[in-house]
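Interim report, section 4.2 (structural modelling).
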Amino acid sequence: MRAALLQDLEEAMRRSSAQGVLYGQTVANVAGIANSDLECMDILYLEGRVTAGRLAEVTGLTTGAITGVVDRLEKAGLVRRERDEKDRRKVFISVVPEKAMKIGELYVPMQQAMEKVFGAYSDEELRLLLRFANEGYKGVLAATEALKSLIDTPPEKRPDLKLKKLRRQP
Amino acid sequence: MRAALLQDLEEAMRRSSAQGVLYGQTVANVAGIANSDLECMDILYLEGRVTAGRLAEVTGLTTGAITGVVDRLEKAGLVRRERDEKDRRKVFISVVPEKAMKIGELYVPMQQAMEKVFGAYSDEELRLLLRFANEGYKGVLAATEALKSLIDTPPEKRPDLKLKKLRRQP
DNA sequence: GCTAAATCTCTTAGTGACTAAGATATATAT
DNA sequence: ATATATATCTTAGTCACTAAGAGATTTAGC
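Predicted structure of the assembly:
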């Protein structure tokens, strides 16, 4: 009973997450920038002014790749490079708000759709969703670390991993 | 008040979704396959036996790219190609369960983390989350379509798009 | 039934974002 | 002062992707 609920939930979340990725791809397409470029714009919105190295860390790209990303974004006028005066090795990247706005507008359909969905929930329920989203984030973050640590554990030394059946047969 | 809640929620969901993408990248990395290859494996799990064209549709890749994806996956023994006997133009792709299992195991850290998160919620609450996930999926799907239709609408004819402020200043 | 148009996958040539390795510049430690 | 560490950039090479179209099969119109 509860097991079925959990499985449905997992599947539903996978689906919506995959569709979210697809939305992002479409945005990047329309904006005429690469996928990773858009992802970095997103991070810049969430975290504000960040260093190139931090972008590499968060995206999982190499610093070399980030140089390319920032080059392209800078050329498109979407971001600015600013050397840190205190530590002149560092380069801060920040968005150019006026230009970035045009990309932000491409998220309007998404915002409208979400507004509509959220509209059906009470404040109380939204707080539950928020709590879940935050805990989910922490969980995924921890899982990512766990997976990474699994990499350099030889298979025979790995803790016994029991995979749940992934999909009920339709 | 509610506006702040909605904004927090949006941001939390964006964060967790981004981290989810990163988890997927790590899985692909560990499994030694390309990102899109893993995405297709995922779709094959969710939808079962699907045609090459359907994969292109769902992933947003061209059919040419899908040929490459399936070539690599087939070479790795993860999927099989089967011509449809009724319509011999079609090619069905299906996973080879024994081989795919090894990739499935890489999702165990994620499953464990999610189990832990879900554990803190009652059945009632999980049903709320499920409802939200399903409605969210439909919303994102609709938004994707809306965005696509925006592409071939000349900017001056577009409905007035009011972008909400994306981030509260920290 | 026969031809034309449509549908589905694959092929080919070319492009561009990515990695790995190392160069450069600056900062910190002994 | 020298060595080590840190942060970004450069370079060469690789690989997945797109666009365009070919090949194979099915569907539609006459």
